[in-house]
Amino acid sequence: ALAWSPHQRGLLASGGGTACKCIRFWSISRGTLISCMPTGSQVCNLLWSKSVNELVSTHGYSSNEIVLWKYPSMTRVATLFGHTARPLYLAPVADGQGIITGAGGDETIRFWNVFPGAARKSGGGGLERREGPASLAQTIR
Question: Mind listing the pLDDT tens digit for each residue in 91-139?
């Protein structure tokens, strides 16, 4: 998995497989490793927010989760569950505030509102699920 930061010139995030289980940050201008964050599971995809300095990662074996990270502290903002197989696909929603994930093994796609301004905060401070016949969106803010 690879993703260029839209906030810092020359900053590249890379994600490792089942043996590595890390997200690494590279300074391309200096040709050096900046930091390495162990995630505990295979990193399948990476995507930066265009509006805030946050990064989404999707994880396969062994967790099948989606994680929202605050960069550079790499504090977990949220951990999202919903796929029963590893989420192999990740794409931004056109508004820049949401993402779509897909898992081949469970044959589902899921819409998530993850970046600021995307949705109402839920009363409990956790994951909020919108109900409705066509609504698959899940929000964290």
Answer: 999 999 999 999 989 999 999 999 986 444 443 344 443 333 334 556 6
By the 10 Å C-beta count (0-12 exposed, 13-18 middle, 19+ buried), 4 is classed as: middle
Q: What secondary structure does DSSP assign to the chain, as a single string? A: -EEE-SSSTTEEEEE--TTT-EEEEEETTTTEEEEEEE-SS-EEEEEE-SSSSEEEEEE-TTT--EEEEETTTTEEEEEE---SS---EEEE-TTSSEEEEEETTTTEEEEEE-STTSSPPPTTSS-EE--STT--EEE--
Is the pTM higher than 0.85? no
For residue 7, what are its two tokens? 């906030």
CA distance 134 to 13: 34
